[in-house]
Design brief:
- This protein is of the alpha+beta class.
- It has 2 helices and 4 strands; from the N terminus they run H-E-E-E-H-E.
- The N and C termini lie far apart (about 25 Å).
- This is Thymidylate kinase.
- One of its GO terms (molecular function) is kinase activity.
- Keywords: Kinase, Transferase.
């Protein structure tokens, strides 16, 4: 989902957690949001491709733009 779509879900309390985790497909970090009914919703571009960020700080900024004040960093270690 795009940033705007995720902001709407946040405003209606449909997403309850922001998670930053390593990308499996690229060298970087992705942002996902846990839906209140279960499952995760990734941050994507307008074409539906998952957004990947080079560093945790930039990925965290996107989660903050959605509306969250805190994020969980998940890693593979």
């Amino acid at each position: 989902m795009t940033l705007t779509e995720l902001q709407r879900l946040y405003d209606s309390s449909e997403i309850v957690e922001a998670v930053i985790e390593p990308s499996i497909q690229a060298n970087g970090w992705i942002v996902e949001f846990r839906h209140r009914r279960g499952g995760f919703v990734p941050l994507t571009d307008g074409a539906g491709s998952e957004k990947c960020y080079r560093d945790i700080d930039t990925a965290t900024e996107r989660a903050f733009e959605v509306g969250f004040h805190q994020v969980r960093i998940a890693d593979t270690f």
